[in-house]
Write a structure and sequence with these properties.
Radius of gyration of chain A: 23 Å
CATH topology of the largest domain in chain A: Cytochrome-c3 Hydrogenase, chain B
Shape of chain A: globular
Oligomer: heterodimer
Strand content of chain A: 5-15%
Shape of chain B: globular
Number of domains of chain A: 2
Number of helices of chain A: 18
Structural class of chain A: mainly alpha
Helix content of chain B: 10-25%
Strand order of the largest sheet of chain A: 1-2-3
Radius of gyration of chain B: 18 Å
Number of domains of chain B: 1
CATH architecture of the largest domain in chain A: Orthogonal Bundle
CATH class of chain B: Alpha Beta
Largest sheet of chain A: 3 strands, antiparallel
């Protein structure tokens, strides 16, 4: 540290007591994209140390979950990584299904895959275009935003909401996908690849952009693993760990896709890995859509598993059918049998392995629920990533890590 | 996929004998516990052994069991062997009156914040942790809110009658 100081700062004689500058970056700084505070020690523009403060939007989800029946916890998971809520929702449903040993039909799995991959695209889209914004390129961000809008419209068609989706139920979906949803999906599959290609043209070989992101915020594979990195950030460092491949859920084993990896783990590799993952996601959605179209007759109408004891019945059935009314009452009042047990289930969230550790004592609510939030785990590496870097690179590093404050603080 | 739950179990019992106990496989994941003084030894063994290679700490959290006298708090580690793609769950229990557990930060850098979070919510005192202070809650807080003695809703409320519905 003293080397650094003597090298960069030339001070008038006898004028100084403190040789570094303390800069309070955040919590509401426009470049931090979320409520995150960093207290930086700067030597000129170079960072000597960074001390993160988190927890500004802590909402005690784990405590709240201990008083909620399983189906009410879905809305809490929405608010973790709110850029890709459907993945969190599905992850939670899959965890419950694992505990309750519910087997979902293939069509449900494929519909879920479509929704999860759309969410992954929406999330990567935001992250990568924000990396662009932070390096001064606003165009890409505005351009791709139209397609996030289209993805949100598809969510809306399926579940009625856009950001905090509360999509799906334990055992399947609340309703079948409408034709409009599929039409919009077709429109997306038709138009988005061209847009993504243009987005890549704008950035990938752009000299200015490359100069900004190459070689900054890098981490070795070994350190990344030790720091518990997962998702695109780990893959950018060259480790091909992907939950979709290592522990397939929701029939991911039926799909062909590759896991893109980087080598240096720097901001540029993270950007490239995310872009490649979007191409893979498009491929997965296409395959899933084909598989769904292959279902004919009654099979093409299946959108939930036949588990009346856990699956909330449709509202119109509740009003008109005795059976549905009984199950609705039982589920809502907590009269269904929940097995006691401990289950850990994880899904490949948009920014890493999103895990749910659920302990049930057989009661109506979880005895304990812990969320393994990927960005909480890897954000602690930030001070190591930016040590010795320029302040402007630290901003880029923060946006390319894909930190989502809601998930960080739970 | 050479490594199986049985292999892990036999290697652990061979090394630690009766110290590791309560082997179970809920939903396919090998789960076991050890005395809290042993936690680092067990994790270091799992990390270093050329066959076991549990070099990835997936998750670390605590659970409060107020009814278990002398072992009220459990610290739960989820470890992952990425090479053989197998996960295990490792628990240590501690008395709530002396919740000292050795820190895993020297093995896993990722344990740093996870342990801070665990301390923040359950008051587990991780001995040797470089920076054990609250992380999500305010620094002034003087209790550990995830413990079971803090119910979510005010127990003295009288405007609600739950006698008929719910449990």
């Amino acid at each position: 540290m003293s080397d650094l100081i003597h090298h960069h700062i030339k001070l008038p004689e006898g004028s100084i007591e403190k040789q570094t500058t303390t800069l309070n970056l955040g919590p509401t700084h426009p470049a931090t994209h979320g409520v995150m505070q960093n207290i930086l020690e700067l030597d000129g523009e170079r960072i000597v140390s960074a001390d993160q403060t988190i927890g500004y939007i802590h909402r005690a989800f784990e405590k709240l979950a201990e008083r909620r029946p399983l189906f009410q916890i879905t809305t809490l998971t929405d608010r973790l990584n709110y850029c890709s809520s459907p993945i969190n929702n599905m992850g939670w449903h899959l965890t419950c299904e694992k505990l309750l040993q519910v087997k979902t039909p293939k069509r449900v799995d494929y519909l879920r895959v479509i929704i999860m991959e759309l969410a992954r695209i929406a999330d990567h889209l935001i992250c990568n275009s924000i990396v662009g914004v932070d390096s001064g390129a606003f165009t890409g961000f505005l351009y791709v935003m139209q397609y996030r809008e289209l993805i949100y419209e598809i969510y809306e068609e399926i579940c009625g909401s856009r950001l905090t989706t509360n999509i799906g139920r334990i055992g399947g979906f609340e309703r079948n996908f409408t034709n409009t949803a599929f039409t919009k999906l077709e429109k997306f599959l038709d138009e988005y690849p061209g847009v993504l290609a243009e987005f890549e043209n704008l950035f990938t070989r752009n000299r200015i952009f490359m100069e900004r992101v190459q070689g900054t915020g890098g981490i070795s594979a070994e350190r990344a693993l030790n720091y518990g990195f997962t998702g695109p950030n780990l893959r950018a460092a060259g480790v091909d760990y992907d939950v979709r491949v290592h522990a397939p859920y929701s029939s991911y084993e039926d799909f062909n896709f590759t896991v893109p990896v980087g080598s240096t783990g720097d901001n540029y590799d993270r950007f490239l890995v995310r872009n490649q993952e979007m191409w893979q996601s498009i491929g997965i959605i296409k395959q899933a859509y084909e598989k769904i179209q292959a279902f004919k007759g009654a099979e093409a109408e299946v959108y939930h598993a036949d588990v009346p004891e856990y699956y909330l019945p449709e509202k119109k059935d509740v009003y008109t059918k005795m059976e549905a009314l009984i199950w609705h009452f039982k589920i809502v009042m907590g009269e269904t049998e929940i097995p006691a047990g401990e289950v850990y289930h994880s899904v490949e969230g948009a920014n890493g392995e999103l895990g749910f550790y659920l302990i049930s004592d057989g009661g109506r609510t979880p005895y304990r629920l812990h969320f393994r939030r990927p960005c909480f785990v890897y954000y602690q590496a930030y001070s190591e990533l930016v040590k010795g870097a320029m302040l402007s690179d630290a901003i880029m590093t923060m946006s390319s890590l894909n930190l989502i404050a809601g998930e960080l603080d739970a | 996929m050479g490594l199986t739950n049985d292999t892990i179990k036999s290697k652990l019992t061979e090394k630690f004998g009766d110290q590791v106990s309560h082997f179970d496989e809920p939903y396919g994941m090998l789960s076991f516990e050890a005395p809290k003084e042993m936690n680092l030894k067990v994790m270091q063994f799992l990390y270093d052994d050329p066959e076991l290679r549990f070099t990835f700490l997936t998750d670390l959290c605590a659970v409060h069991y107020p009814d278990q006298q002398g072992r009220e708090l459990a610290v739960v580690y989820h470890l992952h062997n990425l090479t053989d793609n197998i996960r295990i769950r490792f628990k240590v229990f501690t008395d709530i009156n002396s919740p000292e557990v050795f820190t895993a930060t020297n093995i896993f850098s990722s344990a740093n914040w996870m342990e801070r979070e665990t301390y923040d919510f359950y008051g587990v005192n991780f001995v040797g942790h470089p920076n054990l202070k609250r992380i999500l809650n305010v620094d002034e807080m003087d209790y550990f809110p995830m413990r079971k003695e803090f119910p979510l809703e005010d127990g003295t409320r009288i405007d609600k009658d739950d006698a008929m519905f719910g449990r």
